[in-house]
Amino acid sequence: MLDYDFMRHAFAAATIVAVVAGAVGYFLVLRSQTFAGHALAHVGFTGATGAVLIGISPLWGLVLVTLAAGLGMGFMGERLAQRDVAIGLVLALALGLGLLFLHFFTAYATQATALLFGNVLAVDVETVWTLLALGAISLILLAVISRPLLFASLQPELAEAKGVSLRLYSVLFLAIVALTTAECAQIVGVLLVFALMVGPAAAALQLTRAVVAGVLLSALLAVVEAWLGLTLAFYTDWPTSFWITALSVAIYLLANLRWPVAIRS
Amino acid sequence: MTAIALRDVRLTLGDRVVLDKITLDITAGEFIGVLGPNGAGKTTLMRAILGLVKPSQGEIRILGRPATRGNPAIGYMPQVHGAATLARLNGWDFVASVVDGHRLGLPLMGKAGRAEIERALDRVGARALAQRPLAEISGGERQRLLLAQALIGRPHLLLLDEPLISLDPRHQAEVINLVKSLQRELRITVLFSAHELNPLLGALDRVLYLGSGQAALGTVDEVITGPVLSRLYGSDIEVVRLKGRIFVMSGGHELEGDGHRHDAGSSHSHRHHHAQSGHA
Fold it and tell me: What is the mean predicted confidence (pLDDT) over A121-136?
């Protein structure tokens, strides 16, 4: 399996993205902001297709637009969370615009599926390096702000009283989420970002009680899901994204089944 | 020494003036019960002392210095409303998040940090509790953990926002006794807000009663009187003393019972209705 260049690239890319998605996703679930991750991915679709239209790499379109959207959401803060309808409409518009951009660029019709559902087997060396750089930036940023971010997530009122700016960390964190979303989209596509960002993190939260252990387990689960997904895809010839999503859901369900047992033991 | 000094303070939330022309001094080491109807400004006053709400007029000084955000001399226990996702975490991590929580970096605990957490947990008798996930502990136990959180950083002043909410009388008494012992042993100034006066009668030194934008600070005998409370409620209030308990009545209904509205159970609903109608 690893004799093939494309498989080695796929494994490298998936590993990088899984580690970042697992770690960032843990905080995303802890902060009950999973919807934000989903929303950013949708908005990213517009960015990616728009980028294709003007002739730059879809990855950069994804990164730039999700980052802008993440910062915007962070600045709007609480108010945004209470506007389901507005968010839903913006998301629909984002996907619609993405479709329009694709329409203008019909030569690349397969691009749509790749963006929506991912195409990790098409990742080239250059993209792996880009993902590594972006992943490193995300993880380093997360590590730098993790203590105040955790404080602000667990006890916002007290954190505020102790001088932690809730707004600042909300914005910074959503910027990190945006970067991570853009990376995940390379592996599983914008529609299935949940599989890597939320599934492993939610399972880890079920299985651990301590934050540090939770973050590590979340990253580990994401990597396991990505590797198993790639391996299964290689031998079955079914889409990698399907396998990763299926594994993500399965592990989350298993984690929920395990929970009552863990209490009793 | 004066722990908290307010001089002609006006606090506003949006366009609403919550408190106006408030001047008072709270001496270091005092246990102050902060009372008053919903919306009287108990939480806003605490947030102002924390420097989170700037007075639109007047000055607040804490231990001789102007109130500023992030004052390490103040320990704060906000009202509880934990998100469901947090319930999986153990109490230790919850308390630990406060240690150096405002500093950048990884949330990894050094020896000093661990000792600080253990000291705070021991103070409130919650060392064993801290190993359990938040979802599995009772309301009273959760309040202990929140108190431990407030004690991190060795504050001189404790602001406790409604720590008795949704606790039964036995656990209420436990929390009050615990806070009282902290106040005595650590010589800490305590501001303890509550809906009901009676549970606090044995613990408090003075009462700060808020209402109608005004405040009255004094002993129970000075403040909990018909004339003072009538002024604060803006309606005719009668104070009835019965077997060491004090009832604040308006038009034949007891007023302070509305703290029970926060109870999860519905068994009190009949009584709530009365307490509510007393307000109207």
Answer: 91
Beta strands in B83-233 (DSSP E): 157-160, 189-193, 206-211, 214-218
- Is there a contact between B106 and A147 if contact means CB atoms under 8 Å apart? yes
Confidence of residue A89 (pLDDT cuts 50, 70, 90): confident
In this complex, is the C-beta atom of A109 within 8 Å of any C-beta atom belonging to chain B? no
Cβ within 8 Å, pair A148-B104 = yes
Least CB–CB distance from A161: residue in B50, B107, B133: B50
B185 C-beta neighbours (distance < 10 Å), count: 9
Please indicate if any CB of chain B lies within 8 Å of the CB of A255.
Answer: no
Provide the shortest C-alpha distance from residue A156 to chain B (in Å).
9
Is the ipTM above a cut-off of 0.90? no
Domain spans of chain B, in order of start: 2-73+155-279, 83-102+109-149
Task: Using alpha carbons only, give the angle B16, B22, B28 rounded to the nearest 5 degrees.
Answer: 130
Mutate to test the interface with A, among B44, B53, B90, B93 (most CBs of A within 10 A): B93
Domain boundaries, chain A: 5-192
Whole-angstrom Cα distance, residue B249 to residue B229?
A: 10
What's the CATH code, domain B2-73+155-279? 3.40.50.300
